[in-house]
Specification:
By secondary structure, the chain is α+β, with helices and mostly antiparallel strands. It has helices spanning 4-7, 9-12, 74-86, 150-159, 163-177; strands at 15-17, 22-28, 38-47, 50-56, 61-62, 65-67, 88-90, 94-103, 117-129, 142-148. It has a single domain (4-177), classed as Alpha-Beta Complex (Nucleoside Triphosphate Pyrophosphohydrolase), CATH 3.90.79. β4 and β5 (61-62) form a beta hairpin.
Length: 178
Amino acid sequence: MDDLAARYPHLFQEVIWPWGPTRARFEQMKSAPAEAFISNINLVPCIANQWIVLCLKDGSWEIPGGTLEPGENYLDALSRELTEEAGARLVSFNLIGAWHCHSLADKPYRPHLPFPEYYRVVGWGEIEILQLPQVPPQGEAVHLVASVPIDVAIARFSALERYDLAELYQLAALLRAV
C-alpha cells in the first residue's frame, strides 16, 4: 500500500481539537495501544455494501463512538456507544489506527481517563441495526442513522469540511476491499 499520509493528508495531519483542547495526530496501527492509554473509541460502520453515518439534530454528520466509562475496555465501550447512537450491535471490528492525543488542558476530561497522553482508537466493522438509537439524556442528539454508499458518506463529511472523516471513510473502504 502506498504512503497513506500522502494519500489522506487531512486524516494524518496534526490538528488541535477545540475540546480539551487537544493536539492530535492519526497513526495507522496493526495492534491497539495499551488499554491503559485508550480513552475513546470510534467506528466506521458498514452493513453489506452500505456505510453508516449519524445525523445529529443540528444537521451535522458524525461517526459513532465516544469516551470509555470507568473500568470499560474499548470494545465494550464501542458496543455501548453503538447501542446508544445507532441502535446497533457490533458484528466485527478491524483496527485502522488511532489519534495519538496530547491534552493541553490542566486536568483530564474525566478522572478515570489517561492524561495528558491518550489514544482515540478507530476501526471499521460490520454492524447490525436492531432498534432505534438508545441515546441517554446527556448523550449526543442523534436524529437519523443513515445507510449510504461510500461516495455519499464521503460527500456528507466533505460538505461540512470534515475532510479528516471523509478520508477516514475512504481509508476504511480501501482496507475493507483488501
